[in-house]
């Protein structure tokens, strides 16, 4: 089972329509259940994920404390031995 979430209801809806499990013509590998959720309060059970992707989100979180809290949420939902991929980007980097 592949799950996805986004804080934006609009973006979650776009993803849900593109990855709908029963959408005609959607390849099995691209199907997912998508919901609106806050990365600081993920609605998934602890240890329920084999893997976590967090792409281009962390740099939008307003403080170091909140960024660490979000990373803690990602770790919380990972099973023992699970893997996480977190990417960030910035226009201005040293």
Characterization of the model:
This protein has 94 residues and is of the alpha/beta class. Helices cover 26% and strands 27% of the residues. It contains two helices and four strands, in the order βαββαβ. It has helices at residues 9-18, 64-77, and strands at residues 3-6, 33-36, 49-55, 78-87. The strands form two sheets. Strands 1-2 form a two-stranded parallel sheet. The chain has a two-stranded parallel ribbon with strand order 3-4. Helix 1 links the parallel strand 1 and strand 2 (33-36). The termini are far apart. The model has no long low-confidence stretch (mean pLDDT 84).
Give the tags.
94 residues, alpha/beta, two-stranded parallel ribbon, two-stranded parallel sheet, 2 helices, 4 strands, 27% strand
Low-pLDDT parts are: none
The average pLDDT value, as a whole number, equals: 84
Strand-residue fraction? Answer: 25-35%
N→C terminal distance: 39 Å
**Spatial shape:** globular
> How would you spell out the order of helices and strands?
EHEEHE
Total strand count, please? Answer: 4
Q: Over all CA atoms, what is the radius of gyration?
A: 14 Å
**Residue share in helices?**
25-40%
Q: What structural category characterises the helix and strand content?
A: alpha/beta
Reading side by side through the largest sheet, how are the strands ordered?
1-2
């Amino acid at each position: 089972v592949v799950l996805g979430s986004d804080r934006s209801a609009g973006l979650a809806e776009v993803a849900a329509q593109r990855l709908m499990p029963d959408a005609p013509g959607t390849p099995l590998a691209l199907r997912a259940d998508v919901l609106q959720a806050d990365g600081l309060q993920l609605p998934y059970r602890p240890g329920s994920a084999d893997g976590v992707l967090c792409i281009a989100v962390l740099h939008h979180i307003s403080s170091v404390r909140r960024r660490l809290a979000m990373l803690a949420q990602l770790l919380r939902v990972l099973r023992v031995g699970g893997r996480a991929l977190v990417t960030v980007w910035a226009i201005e980097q040293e």
